[in-house]
Protein backbone atom coordinates (compact mmCIF):
# COMPACT_ATOMS: atom_id res chain seq x y z
CA UNK A 1 0.00 0.00 0.00
CA UNK A 2 2.80 2.42 0.90
CA UNK A 3 4.56 1.69 -2.42
CA UNK A 4 1.34 2.44 -4.26
CA UNK A 5 0.93 5.75 -2.44
CA UNK A 6 4.53 6.67 -3.23
CA UNK A 7 3.65 6.33 -6.91
CA UNK A 8 0.21 7.94 -6.74
CA UNK A 9 0.91 11.07 -4.69
CA UNK A 10 3.66 12.57 -6.93
CA UNK A 11 1.60 11.75 -10.02
CA UNK A 12 -1.50 13.34 -8.46
CA UNK A 13 0.49 16.50 -7.66
CA UNK A 14 1.76 16.62 -11.25
CA UNK A 15 -1.77 16.25 -12.59
CA UNK A 16 -3.15 19.00 -10.34
CA UNK A 17 -0.22 21.22 -11.34
CA UNK A 18 -0.97 20.68 -15.04
CA UNK A 19 -4.70 21.26 -14.57
CA UNK A 20 -4.22 24.37 -12.43
CA UNK A 21 -1.84 26.25 -14.70
CA UNK A 22 -3.52 25.09 -17.90
CA UNK A 23 -6.94 26.15 -16.61
CA UNK A 24 -5.62 29.56 -15.53
CA UNK A 25 -4.18 30.39 -18.94
CA UNK A 26 -7.13 28.80 -20.73
CA UNK A 27 -9.58 31.09 -18.92
CA UNK A 28 -7.38 34.17 -19.41
CA UNK A 29 -7.15 33.49 -23.16
CA UNK A 30 -10.49 31.81 -23.83
CA UNK A 31 -12.77 34.29 -22.04
CA UNK A 32 -11.91 37.33 -24.19
CA UNK A 33 -11.85 35.13 -27.29
CA UNK A 34 -15.36 33.90 -26.55
CA UNK A 35 -16.55 37.44 -25.88
CA UNK A 36 -15.12 38.61 -29.21
CA UNK A 37 -16.91 35.77 -31.01
CA UNK A 38 -20.23 37.04 -29.65
CA UNK A 39 -19.93 40.83 -29.78
CA UNK A 40 -18.43 40.94 -33.30
CA UNK A 41 -21.37 39.13 -34.83
CA UNK A 42 -23.61 40.98 -37.24
CA UNK A 43 -26.19 43.12 -35.40
CA UNK A 44 -24.43 42.75 -32.05
CA UNK A 45 -22.81 45.55 -30.02
CA UNK A 46 -19.50 45.58 -31.96
CA UNK A 47 -20.24 44.04 -35.38
CA UNK A 48 -17.13 42.93 -37.27
CA UNK A 49 -18.16 39.91 -39.39
CA UNK A 50 -14.75 39.48 -41.05
CA UNK A 51 -12.90 39.18 -37.74
CA UNK A 52 -15.65 36.93 -36.41
CA UNK A 53 -15.36 34.56 -39.37
CA UNK A 54 -11.54 34.40 -39.19
CA UNK A 55 -11.52 33.63 -35.45
CA UNK A 56 -14.33 31.12 -35.79
CA UNK A 57 -12.49 29.29 -38.58
CA UNK A 58 -9.23 29.12 -36.59
CA UNK A 59 -11.07 27.77 -33.56
CA UNK A 60 -12.87 25.16 -35.65
CA UNK A 61 -9.59 23.98 -37.21
CA UNK A 62 -7.89 23.55 -33.83
CA UNK A 63 -10.92 21.82 -32.33
CA UNK A 64 -11.11 19.41 -35.24
CA UNK A 65 -7.69 17.94 -34.38
CA UNK A 66 -7.63 14.95 -32.01
CA UNK A 67 -5.95 15.83 -28.71
CA UNK A 68 -3.07 13.39 -29.13
CA UNK A 69 -2.24 14.76 -32.62
CA UNK A 70 -2.43 18.34 -31.37
CA UNK A 71 -0.09 17.52 -28.48
CA UNK A 72 2.44 16.05 -30.94
CA UNK A 73 2.17 19.05 -33.28
CA UNK A 74 2.62 21.58 -30.46
CA UNK A 75 5.65 19.77 -28.96
CA UNK A 76 8.24 21.88 -30.87
CA UNK A 77 6.44 25.06 -29.78
CA UNK A 78 6.45 23.84 -26.18
CA UNK A 79 10.15 23.16 -26.43
CA UNK A 80 10.70 26.71 -27.66
CA UNK A 81 8.80 28.18 -24.71
CA UNK A 82 9.88 26.01 -21.76
CA UNK A 83 13.09 24.50 -23.16
CA UNK A 84 11.86 20.92 -23.44
CA UNK A 85 9.07 18.97 -25.12
CA UNK A 86 8.92 16.28 -22.43
CA UNK A 87 7.69 16.55 -18.88
CA UNK A 88 4.87 18.06 -16.87
CA UNK A 89 5.66 21.71 -17.57
CA UNK A 90 6.08 21.09 -21.30
CA UNK A 91 2.68 19.35 -21.38
CA UNK A 92 0.96 22.50 -20.13
CA UNK A 93 1.57 24.32 -23.44
CA UNK A 94 -0.37 21.90 -25.68
CA UNK A 95 -3.03 21.56 -22.98
CA UNK A 96 -3.65 25.32 -23.17
CA UNK A 97 -3.71 25.26 -26.97
CA UNK A 98 -6.19 22.37 -26.93
CA UNK A 99 -8.45 23.74 -24.20
CA UNK A 100 -8.62 27.44 -25.15
CA UNK A 101 -10.71 27.03 -28.33
CA UNK A 102 -13.03 24.68 -26.46
CA UNK A 103 -13.51 27.17 -23.63
CA UNK A 104 -13.99 30.03 -26.10
CA UNK A 105 -16.95 28.16 -27.58
CA UNK A 106 -18.29 27.51 -24.09
CA UNK A 107 -18.09 31.23 -23.31
CA UNK A 108 -19.76 32.03 -26.62
CA UNK A 109 -22.65 29.69 -25.83
CA UNK A 110 -23.06 31.10 -22.31
CA UNK A 111 -23.16 34.70 -23.50
CA UNK A 112 -25.70 33.85 -26.20
CA UNK A 113 -28.07 32.73 -23.44
CA UNK A 114 -28.25 36.26 -22.02
CA UNK A 115 -31.60 37.89 -22.79
CA UNK A 116 -31.08 40.25 -25.72
CA UNK A 117 -33.69 42.55 -24.23
CA UNK A 118 -31.35 43.34 -21.34
CA UNK A 119 -28.57 44.20 -23.79
CA UNK A 120 -30.88 46.44 -25.81
CA UNK A 121 -32.02 48.21 -22.64
CA UNK A 122 -28.40 48.88 -21.70
CA UNK A 123 -27.68 50.24 -25.17
CA UNK A 124 -30.73 52.50 -24.95
CA UNK A 125 -29.40 53.93 -21.68
CA UNK A 126 -26.14 54.83 -23.42
CA UNK A 127 -23.91 52.08 -22.04
CA UNK A 128 -20.65 51.57 -23.92
CA UNK A 129 -19.72 48.17 -25.39
CA UNK A 130 -17.19 47.65 -22.58
CA UNK A 131 -19.84 48.44 -19.96
CA UNK A 132 -22.30 46.06 -21.60
CA UNK A 133 -19.70 43.29 -21.62
CA UNK A 134 -18.54 43.77 -18.01
CA UNK A 135 -21.82 44.80 -16.38
CA UNK A 136 -24.41 42.90 -18.39
CA UNK A 137 -23.16 39.98 -20.47
CA UNK A 138 -20.63 38.47 -18.04
CA UNK A 139 -22.66 38.98 -14.81
CA UNK A 140 -25.82 37.59 -16.42
CA UNK A 141 -23.93 34.56 -17.75
CA UNK A 142 -21.96 33.77 -14.57
CA UNK A 143 -23.98 30.68 -13.64
CA UNK A 144 -23.57 29.19 -17.10
CA UNK A 145 -19.89 30.21 -17.20
CA UNK A 146 -19.28 28.37 -13.92
CA UNK A 147 -20.58 25.16 -15.49
CA UNK A 148 -18.54 25.89 -18.60
CA UNK A 149 -15.36 26.24 -16.57
CA UNK A 150 -16.18 22.95 -14.84
CA UNK A 151 -16.59 21.16 -18.18
CA UNK A 152 -13.34 22.72 -19.40
CA UNK A 153 -11.46 21.57 -16.30
CA UNK A 154 -12.70 18.03 -16.82
CA UNK A 155 -11.61 18.20 -20.47
CA UNK A 156 -8.17 19.42 -19.44
CA UNK A 157 -7.94 16.48 -17.05
CA UNK A 158 -8.68 14.16 -19.97
CA UNK A 159 -6.10 15.93 -22.13
CA UNK A 160 -3.52 15.63 -19.33
CA UNK A 161 -4.06 11.87 -19.19
CA UNK A 162 -3.45 11.70 -22.96
CA UNK A 163 -0.33 13.86 -22.53
CA UNK A 164 0.93 11.24 -20.09
CA UNK A 165 1.20 8.78 -22.98
CA UNK A 166 3.77 11.10 -24.55
CA UNK A 167 5.82 11.59 -21.39
CA UNK A 168 3.81 14.46 -19.94
CA UNK A 169 3.79 13.03 -16.44
CA UNK A 170 0.82 12.84 -14.08
CA UNK A 171 -1.68 10.07 -13.50
CA UNK A 172 -1.96 9.26 -17.20
CA UNK A 173 1.77 8.64 -17.42
CA UNK A 174 1.62 6.52 -14.25
CA UNK A 175 -1.25 4.41 -15.60
CA UNK A 176 0.56 3.76 -18.88
CA UNK A 177 4.15 3.24 -17.66
CA UNK A 178 3.44 1.24 -14.52
CA UNK A 179 -0.10 -0.03 -14.90
CA UNK A 180 -0.05 -1.04 -18.56
CA UNK A 181 3.55 -1.58 -19.68
CA UNK A 182 4.65 -3.25 -16.44
CA UNK A 183 1.38 -5.15 -16.00
CA UNK A 184 0.71 -3.66 -12.55
CA UNK A 185 -3.06 -3.83 -12.52
CA UNK A 186 -3.33 -2.35 -9.03
CA UNK A 187 -1.52 0.80 -10.14
CA UNK A 188 -3.73 1.12 -13.23
CA UNK A 189 -6.93 0.69 -11.21
CA UNK A 190 -5.75 3.11 -8.51
CA UNK A 191 -4.90 5.78 -11.11
CA UNK A 192 -8.32 5.40 -12.73
CA UNK A 193 -10.07 5.64 -9.35
CA UNK A 194 -8.20 8.85 -8.51
CA UNK A 195 -9.07 10.35 -11.92
CA UNK A 196 -12.74 9.48 -11.45
CA UNK A 197 -12.69 10.99 -7.95
CA UNK A 198 -11.18 14.24 -9.29
CA UNK A 199 -13.91 14.48 -11.92
CA UNK A 200 -16.65 13.88 -9.33
CA UNK A 201 -15.23 16.58 -7.04
CA UNK A 202 -14.89 19.07 -9.90
CA UNK A 203 -18.45 18.45 -11.06
CA UNK A 204 -19.88 18.76 -7.55
CA UNK A 205 -18.06 22.04 -6.89
CA UNK A 206 -18.97 23.40 -10.32
CA UNK A 207 -22.66 22.55 -9.89
CA UNK A 208 -22.71 24.12 -6.42
CA UNK A 209 -21.05 27.31 -7.66
CA UNK A 210 -23.39 27.53 -10.63
CA UNK A 211 -26.45 27.24 -8.39
CA UNK A 212 -25.14 29.95 -6.05
CA UNK A 213 -24.58 32.30 -9.02
CA UNK A 214 -27.92 31.60 -10.68
CA UNK A 215 -29.95 34.82 -10.80
CA UNK A 216 -33.16 33.16 -11.96
From TrEMBL:
It is found in: Cell membrane. The keyword Membrane applies. Residues 12-206 form the ABC transmembrane type-1 domain. Its main location: membrane. SUPFAM superfamilies: MetI-like (SSF161098). PROSITE patterns: ABC_TM1. Belongs to the binding-protein-dependent transport system permease family. CysTW subfamily. This is D-methionine transport system permease protein.
